[in-house]
Amino acid sequence: MNPEPFLQLDRVIHEKGRLAIVSLLAASARLAFTEIRDTLDMTDGNVMAHLRTLHEAGYVAATKSFEEGRAQTTYALTATGRKAFTAYIDLLEQIVRQTKEK
Amino acid sequence: MNPEPFLQLDRVIHEKGRLAIVSLLAASARLAFTEIRDTLDMTDGNVMAHLRTLHEAGYVAATKSFEEGRAQTTYALTATGRKAFTAYIDLLEQIVRQTKEK
């Protein structure tokens, strides 16, 4: 077994809650907090903590806008986040492939 | 995005150190502690903690044997562990596939 793909897995993305959030954001332009929370059936606290970690890693950016007089914050992957996610998915693919070959 | 595969990921296997250990055991009949540690370049403490968690989940069994008068403990996946790992890899494959389809 080649241990490299395992060692390289990005811990920021690998945590399953964050993996779900990053996958969701990768499939969308940008999303509101409530859209993330409701799609993934997570608590406010969970989504908030994961978004903070992703923000600190430079993977997710928040944008504040005003619509019909109400402030709304939306979240999107940064270019860095998208690149890290692509690399992560490539590693998962290697792990799946090397397992199925056995 | 379908959030199901993310929600179903088995936390016992998902942690990247344990994922490496389980993948290694899945590719072998049984392995000594030092073989696991050296192949994955982990510390004794790390391997020990992960094996304990895997044992508590019923995924890994330890066998003590005597070879040339020396006690040796080897580790192997149980049938439950192998089943859980197969289910986990199937979920990873779904996650990869649904990402690549985008």
The percent of residues in helical segments of chain A reads: 55-70%
> Which value, in Å, is the CA radius of gyration of chain A?
15 Å
CATH class of chain A: Mainly Alpha
CATH architecture of chain A: Orthogonal Bundle
Percent of residues in β-strands of chain A: 15-25%
- Runs of chain A with pLDDT <50, length 5+? none
Structural class by SSE content of chain A: alpha+beta
How many strand segments of chain A? 3
What does the average pLDDT of chain A come to?
A: 94
CATH fold field value of chain A = Arc Repressor Mutant, subunit A
The strands making up the biggest β-sheet of chain A line up spatially as 1-3-2
CATH superfamily descriptor of chain A: Winged helix-like DNA-binding domain superfamily/Winged helix DNA-binding domain
Helical segment count of chain A: 6
Taking the alpha carbons of the first and last residues of chain A, their distance comes to 10 Å
- Overall tally of structural domains of chain A: 1
Oligomeric status of the shown chains? homodimer
What is the 3D shape of chain A?
A: elongated
Give the largest interface: A-B, 26 and 27 residues
Helix and strand run of chain A? HHHEHHEEH
Plain-language structure description:
Two copies of one chain form a homodimer. Chain A is α+β, with helices and mostly antiparallel strands. Chain A has one domain (4-95): Arc Repressor Mutant, subunit A. Chain A is built from six helices and three strands. The first copy, chain A, has a three-stranded antiparallel beta sheet with strand order 1-3-2. The first copy, chain A, is elongated, with a radius of gyration of 15 Å. The mean pLDDT of chain A is 94. The A-B interface holds A 1, 3, 6-7, 9, 11, 14, 16, 19-20, 23-24, 26-27, 39-41, 89, 92-93, 95-96, 98-100, 102 and B 1, 3, 6-7, 9, 11, 14, 16-17, 19-20, 23-24, 26-27, 39-41, 89, 92-93, 95-96, 98-100, 102.
